[in-house]
Amino acid sequence: MDAPADYSNAVSITAGARAIELIPVDYFAALDLAQIFSQPAPVEVDLGCGDGSFLNAMAEKFPARNFLGIERLLGRVQTGCRHAARAHLPNVRFLRLEFLYAVQFLLPRGSIEVAHLLCPDPWPKSRHRRRRTATPEFFAGVHGLLATGGCFRIATDQEKYFRAIRELILPEQFLEIPPNESLPLTTFEKRFIDQGLPIHRLELRKVS
């Protein structure tokens, strides 16, 4: 007779994944980031983090920093939480929510060291451009949530969208600096690179 299956590891991962998902008590109050993470450390946020592959790789590479991923799709959040639990990453949390709402209402002003916006939907058709994430209001929101000297990192495979994003940079808000090319890749970035597509990167530092 076969030995009974040992489900203890699967159970522990499931419990760990549930602990990694952040479910705010109040969606109308700013998050207390000091209560969310077990260590006091600079916080980086991935806006639209997808399956969390980039976020988890960053958390493993930089254990002295905290990482918050915001993603609206349940399956992607669950995947990211499971991978973080398997890797035993205590410095990661995932929030299932529209990140535009989080930028406007949940992330405290001046609380984020680095914000990442990686391969957002470019909405290339003219009639859909109003759906794009990158707007003057969004840039102002990110500027507000960043700490003094904080960075905003952007990547896209769409050159036209990249040019449109650059036009939104206000010199009184951000200074463009050389992008960090040594960071892990997102799932979408890997896919685009495999297809031979260039990735356009932009790194901005908050100046005021």
Task: Describe what you observe in this structure.
This protein is an alpha/beta fold. The chain has a single domain (39-206), classed as Rossmann fold (3-Layer(aba) Sandwich), CATH 3.40.50.150. The protein is built from 8 helices and 8 strands; from the N terminus they run H-E-H-E-H-E-H-E-H-E-H-E-H-E-H-E.
Strand adjacency order, main sheet: 1-4-3-2-5-6-8-7
What structural category characterises the helix and strand content? alpha/beta
Q: Give the overall form.
A: globular
What low-confidence regions span 5 or more consecutive residues with pLDDT below 50? none
Number of strands: 8
Number of domains: 1
- Beta-strand percent range: 15-25%
The fold-level CATH name is Rossmann fold
Count, helices: 8
Which homologous superfamily in CATH is the superfamily?
Vaccinia Virus protein VP39
Our measurement of the CA-to-CA distance between the termini, rounded to an integer number of angstroms, reads 70 Å
Tell me about the largest β-sheet.
8 strands, mixed
- Helix % is 25-40%
Backbone CA Rg: 18 Å
Give the topology string: H per helix, E per strand: HEHEHEHEHEHEHEHE
The average pLDDT value, as a whole number, equals: 89
Query: What's the level 1 CATH class?
Result: Alpha Beta
CATH architecture: 3-Layer(aba) Sandwich
